[in-house]
Amino acid sequence: MPPKPLDYESINENVKRAQYAVRGELYLRASELQKEGKKIIFTNVGNPHALGQKPLTFPRQVVALCQAPFLLDDPNVAVLFPADAIARAKHYLSLTTGGLGAYSDSRGLPGIRKEVAEFIYRRDGYPSDPELIYLTDGASKGVMQILNTIIRGQGDGVLVPVPQYPLYSATIALLGGSLVPYFLEETANWGLDVNELRQSVTEARYKGITVRAMVIINPGNPTGQCLSEANLREVLQFCYQENLVLLGDEVYQQNIYQDERPFVSSKKVLMDMGPPISKEVQLVSFHTVSKGYWGECGQRGGYFEMTNIPPETVDEIYKVASVSLSPNVPAQIFMGLMVNPPKPGDISFDQYARESKGILDSLRRRARLMTDGFNSCRNVVCNFTEDIMHDCLCLGAMYSFPQIRLPPRAIEAAKQAGKVPDVFYCLKLLEATGISTVPGSGFGQKEGIFHLRTTILPAEEEMPAIMSSFKKFNDEFMEQYEDHRGYSRM
Amino acid sequence: MPPKPLDYESINENVKRAQYAVRGELYLRASELQKEGKKIIFTNVGNPHALGQKPLTFPRQVVALCQAPFLLDDPNVAVLFPADAIARAKHYLSLTTGGLGAYSDSRGLPGIRKEVAEFIYRRDGYPSDPELIYLTDGASKGVMQILNTIIRGQGDGVLVPVPQYPLYSATIALLGGSLVPYFLEETANWGLDVNELRQSVTEARYKGITVRAMVIINPGNPTGQCLSEANLREVLQFCYQENLVLLGDEVYQQNIYQDERPFVSSKKVLMDMGPPISKEVQLVSFHTVSKGYWGECGQRGGYFEMTNIPPETVDEIYKVASVSLSPNVPAQIFMGLMVNPPKPGDISFDQYARESKGILDSLRRRARLMTDGFNSCRNVVCNFTEDIMHDCLCLGAMYSFPQIRLPPRAIEAAKQAGKVPDVFYCLKLLEATGISTVPGSGFGQKEGIFHLRTTILPAEEEMPAIMSSFKKFNDEFMEQYEDHRGYSRM
C-alpha cells in the first residue's frame, strides 16, 4: 500500500526540517521524568509564572472583571475589587463590541492599538500610528506572519544572529526559506559586528540567496546583550545599504539589569537618523506581555509596529490576519494594561510599583547569582571581560548562556552515545539534578564550542540549592571526563 | 531604486493570492461607514456576543476566578461567586503549573485534554486518547496547522466543498497548495454527492494534482446542512478508496435547529464502520468554544482530535505547535468548561441549563424568521423542498445563505461598476440598510448563480425590523433592475 497523506514519509518536508530545541529532546525527556515522579526544574523556557513568579495584581483584577462583566452591576463588587480596577474594566469593555467573547477587528481593538501608539510615543519621542500597530497572540505569531510575508521560497534569505532564539530558524524552515547566520562574538560580550554581517551577506549571495531581512534580538536571547545606539545605527545603515527589512525582536525591553545601557528601540534610533534612512528602512518591531515583570506568557498577547511599510502591504498583512479572525481579546486587555499601567496617585499605583520593582530587583539578583555560580564551576565560563559589561550575560533578557568547555573524552563519549556533545551534557545534568536546560546547539554556536541556556527564573530562595546542585554535577562530570594525564583547564 | 522587500510587488505571492471574503471588501466598507457614524448590523461573521448574545455566566465566573486566584483566599469571595464556580476554578488552577500566566504544554494542559477525551467518549461511545487531542487558539489555527502538514506544494490538492467557509481557500492559497472544489447541490438541500467527488478528483488528477485531503463542514458553513450518517459513510468509504485524509470541521455541532437529524461526528461513523476502514482512514476533527450556545469567539479556544495518524507525525505536529509555545490558557479553561459543564444537582446547573436553552431556542426561532423573511422577498429563494428538510438552510450552523436571482440588467450594472454581481448587490444593501453580509462569491458558487451569507445572530427583537429593511431594499432593487418589458420571476 502507498503511504497515506499523514504518514511520516509523505508529510511536508519543511515541517520535518523545523527544529525547536526550547521544547525539544531535553524538554521531552524532562516531561517523561516528571511523569515518573522526578522533581524537574524547568529552566528551558522563559516561563516565569511556572516557576512561582506571582502575576501583578492590578491587571489580573481588571481582566477578571472584564471576564465577569455582570460583577460590575453587583453592589458588592467593591468588596473584592478596588475602584480603579473597576473603572479600568469599564473602560476596556467600552472599547469592545460585545466584551471579551466577541472577535475584535483582526488587527486588535482600535482603542488598545491607540494606547500602544501612545506608549511608543512616550518611549521614543516620535509619533506612532495605531493603524500600523497590529495586536497578536504573542510576539511569535507576529514574527511568523511577517516572515511569511517576506519569504517567497528557498532563494529568500533572512539574516539571523547565532546564537539565536530558535523561533527564527524554525519559522524560516517551515516557510521554506533560507537562514543566513551572522555570528555574535562571545569574547566581545556577544557584540554584533557589521563586518560579520557583510561577510554573511556576501557568502549568501554567492550561494544564490537574496537576503531580504535581518533579525535582531535586543536584549538578546539567549545571550542577554543590549545593543548600543551606535551599534543599532550601524545595523540600520547596513539594512539601508543592503535593502533589508529589519525585524526588531524587543520582547525583553523591560528586562535590563544594569544602568549603564538602558534599552533603546530600533524605531527611535531609526527616527533619530533622519532622512533618507528614517524614511526608507522598513522596520517591524515586536513586543509582548509574556516577558518583562509581567511574564503573562499563558495569555498570549503581543503586538508589532510597522514603519515605512507601504499601505498595500499593510492591507495584505491585515487580510492574512483576518483569516485567523482576531487575536485573543483578554490578552489584548493585558497589552493595554502593560502600556498604560496605574499612574502615581491611582489607588493601585503603590501596589503595582512595589510588585513590579520586587520582580525586577529579584531578577537582577538572580542573574548575578547565576553568573557567579556558573563562573565558580570547573570549565564553565559565563563572562569574558572586566569592564562595565562585567556581567555580560545577565545584562538583559531572562537567560544565562554559559560556555561549557567539554573535555575531548566527553565529546568522544557523546559521539559513542549518538548525541551532540552539549545535548549529552544537558541530558546528564537533567538526569542527575532535574535541571532542564537547553543545549547551546539549539541556538547555534561556533564549531567545537558548547553552551547551555538556562533561564534565571527559578525562585530566588531556591537558587543557591540549584546552583550548588549544578556545580556538584558539573564538577563530577568534568572530573569523570577530563584527561588526568594532563588535560588542563582552558 | 529596486523595490524593497515589503513593497507590494516583492512580497510573497501566496499572501496576495489568499482571499478571505468574510472580512473582505464588504466588511472593510462597513467599517468605514461605521466610522462615518452609520449604524451597521454586522452579520458578516458568526460573532454572537458582538450582536448582544450574553456569555454563559458559570464559565465566566470560573475563568474570572482563575484570572484572579488571590480572590480564592479572600473570605469574601462567596459574596460574588457561587461555591461550584470557586471549586471549579481551584480544579482548573490545579491542572496548571503557575496559573493562566504560564505557558502550558504546547498541546494544551494535559488535564483539559483528558476532559475533552471524556467528552468525545460520551458523545461517540468510542474511547478517545488525550495524547491525540491538541488544544488550539480557535479551530482555525488547528486547520491551518494540519493543512500545513499535508500540503507540500502546488501539486498537492485538497477537496473543499463549494460553497465553503473561506478559511480553507485562503489557507490553501497561503500554503501554495491547490484547492480542488466539489459542489454541494443546492436543489438537494446542499447535499454532498459522492459522484461529484469522484469527478472532482478525476479532473484534478488530469491536471497533475495529487489529491491528499478532503474537507467536510458539518453542519455546513455557509449552507447549514447536516450530513446524514449514510452520507458520512460514503465520504469515509471514498477517503479510504482514494487515500485521503478527512478533515472534519465540526465547529457547529451544537447548532442544530431541527430534531430529525441530530449531529453525528465523523469519528463515530468511522468507528462504526469497523476495520479495515476504521483502522485506516486518517481523520482530524475540529471543535471550538466560539460557536454553539457559547459563542466565546474572542477567547480563541479550540481543539483537534487525530485518528489513525502515526505517532511520528503526531510528534511532528507537536513540534510545530511548540514553536508557538502554547495555545492561550484562559481559552483552554473555557474548552474544559464546555466539554464538562455543570451537572444536574450542581448549584449553577439550573442557571447554566436555562441560559443555554434560551440561546439555542432563540437561534432556532431566528433561523426560521430569517428563512421565512428571505422567502417572502422578490427573487430571493432560501429553500427548495417541502420535505422534512423544509428549512434546509437553517438546519444547522449560524447562517442563512439565500440565492439571489439577479436580473440581467443588475448583472450588467455590476459589470459597469467593475464589481462581481453579488458584491454589487451586497454593497448596495449595505449602503441602503447598514446590513453587512458576505457575497456568495466569497464562498464559491456555480457560474451565474448568486447568493449572500448572513448570520442568524442579530438580536431576536431586532430581527423583524432587519428583515423588513432587507425586504424593502431588495424589492426596490429588483424593481429597479428587472426588465419591465417582460422579465418574469423565476
UniProtKB/TrEMBL annotation, chains A, B:
Keywords: Aminotransferase, Pyridoxal phosphate, Transferase. One of its GO terms (cellular component) is peroxisome. InterPro entries: ALAT1/2-like, Aminotransferase_I/II_large, PyrdxlP-dep_Trfase, PyrdxlP-dep_Trfase_major, PyrdxlP-dep_Trfase_small. Its cofactor is pyridoxal 5'-phosphate. Residues 84-456 form the Aminotransferase class I/classII large domain. GO terms for biological process: L-alanine catabolic process; photorespiration. CDD domains: AAT_like. It comes from the Eukaryota. It catalyses: glyoxylate + L-alanine = glycine + pyruvate; glycine + 2-oxoglutarate = glyoxylate + L-glutamate. Pathway: Amino-acid degradation; L-alanine degradation via transaminase pathway; pyruvate from L-alanine: step 1/1; Photosynthesis; C4 acid pathway. GO terms for molecular function: alanine-glyoxylate transaminase activity; glycine:2-oxoglutarate aminotransferase activity; L-alanine:2-oxoglutarate aminotransferase activity; pyridoxal phosphate binding. The keyword Zinc-finger does not apply. PANTHER family: ALANINE AMINOTRANSFERASE, GLUTAMATE--GLYOXYLATE AMINOTRANSFERASE 2. Belongs to the class-I pyridoxal-phosphate-dependent aminotransferase family. Alanine aminotransferase subfamily. Homodimer. This is Glutamate--glyoxylate aminotransferase 2. It comes from Senna tora.
